[in-house]
Design a protein that fits this description.
Blueprint: E1 6-15, E2 18-27, E3 30-36, E4 39-46, H1 51-61, E5 71-79, E6 82-89, H2 91-108, E7 112-116, E8 122-127, H3 128-133
Parallel strand pairs: 3-6
Antiparallel strand pairs: 1-2, 3-4, 5-6, 7-8
Length: 137
């Protein structure tokens, strides 16, 4: 499924001397989920153009990566009403995500997070015990 970055909308322009029919080109916006190593970090509304560049910029500006080379692979998948920008990170960044998972569990007072594969399918769960064994916490 492809999304067009713009669409045409018909309307009526009102002038002091009357009205007339008009057509305007407007930007389209769709939800874009930023997914890092199978975990969704954020969903934003965006024009569906240059999604990969937008996703890399998001990763850099949010401090998920320090430089774009820490992203080993990207994939843009359009489905349903939106788009997923999937990114896989180098091992060092994946370890940092384990630390972030621990912080999420602590902040939200939960004991586990679900883990998905690159296709978004559930493949397991991560819990406090796993993080202790990995010496993350």
């Amino acid at each position: 499924m492809a999304f067009a970055p713009t669409f045409s909308a018909k309307g009526v322009a009102v002038h002091p001397d009357g009205t007339r029919a008009v057509t305007r080109t407007l930007p389209e916006e769709v939800p874009v989920a930023f997914v890092f190593d199978g975990t969704t970090q954020a969903v934003m509304m965006a024009t569906p153009a240059d999604i990969e560049d937008f996703a890399v910029g998001f990763a850099l500006s949010e401090g998920i990566v320090v430089h774009a080379g820490e992203i080993t692979e990207t994939e843009v998948v359009a489905h349903g009403p939106g788009i997923e920008a999937r990114m896989w990170l180098t091992g060092d960044r994946a370890e940092a995500l384990a630390v972030e998972a621990a912080e999420i569990m602590e902040t939200r007072r939960i004991s586990q997070l679900l883990v998905t594969n690159r296709d978004g399918r559930l493949i397991g769960a991560l819990n406090h015990h796993d993080l202790m064994l990995a010496k993350v916490i």
